[in-house]
Amino acid sequence: MKVVAIIPVSPFEPIEIILDSVKHLKSLDWDNFDYELLYVVDKRHNNDSRVEILKRENIRVLERNTTRGKRGGAINDALNVLGKVDYIAIFDVDSRPEKDFIVKCVEALQKHKNAYIASSRRYISNPVNLVSETIETEYYFINFLLKKSAFKQFNGLIGVLRAELLIKYRLNEDVITEDADFATRMHFMGYKAILVENTKIFEQAPIKWKDLYNQRKRWYYGGLQLWRYWKYVRKSNFKFAISWFSALTLTYVILVIAPFLILAPPLLLYKFRKIKKLVVVVGLFIHTLILQFAAITALINFIKKRGVEWDQIERVT
Fold this sequence. Notes:
Radius of gyration: 19 Å
Number of helices: 12
Oligomer: single chain
Structural class: alpha/beta
């Protein structure tokens, strides 16, 4: 079987993170697959040194002199040069899957013929300050919902996808959140996403409140664009429709969960077994306010057709 991992690289990404990505992905268990890593680099300028450095690592590079379609455009361009392939793994440069991630996801797809993607729960690899520790806690809640929801949407489509479906339906380059757009289309067409329980993937969280706000404002704006599919969703599987509708309504009034933050201290102690983690209660309160403000701003921008910018997020190198 042929498996290709596509890793989009924005103009913002530092070479240190990219090289660490190469090292980590090469170290995965690829079993007996014929595999290839394909880094799609949106170049900063014509002589972007990151391209040459990757080539010296014997990595296949697709160079783009444009940011057309952002991440979705980069992945679509990669699809044009793949040739015959059975499975496509998609990672970001900060994705750090466990060693058996590829094997476990491929096994899941082979067992579920109507699945378009297999992936795992996400965890934070850089809990270095209050911002990232707060998001680390948020991810535990998201992982709980991911198991329960009939609309399993893996952020960034990070995971392993059935190549024929991704190549056939491709990503929508006219939306902000191409991952949620593709997941919605797959679900209402009857395909499903598989949560693989026995592996994990780690990624970096924003380490600044400003970066968190900009990231979530973009996500909220992308969610508003998904309502174009409502007429299809409401005719599809009932459980999926309810989960999808809840995701696109309840998350926009996130402030309603504020009273439940009173339960955070005992839950934090139970989960982390560390007194110092109680400071995350403060972070959760700030986090809730930021998300609510991001939702309101995204809604205003959407109504006024202003769009949102794709801003750089600071990495921990």
